[in-house]
Give the backbone structure.
Amino acid sequence: FPVTKGVWSPTTLYYTNDAVFYNGSSYNSLYDYNIGKQPDLTWDPEAWSMIAEGVGLDQICRRLAGEPRVG
């Protein structure tokens, strides 16, 4: 399961499966020591995988916990 790290920051060090929120979507880091790589698939598709487009991390965490979809 992804580890929620909040809004992406270019100065934060991310590890495999760390999840961030960036530009309205949620992303999952694909490797350890991921720093300064913007989680936009056009920037570096080998650094991040999109979890959900236009969905916040709070909604992802609720879904992973088995809570019903809101809205």
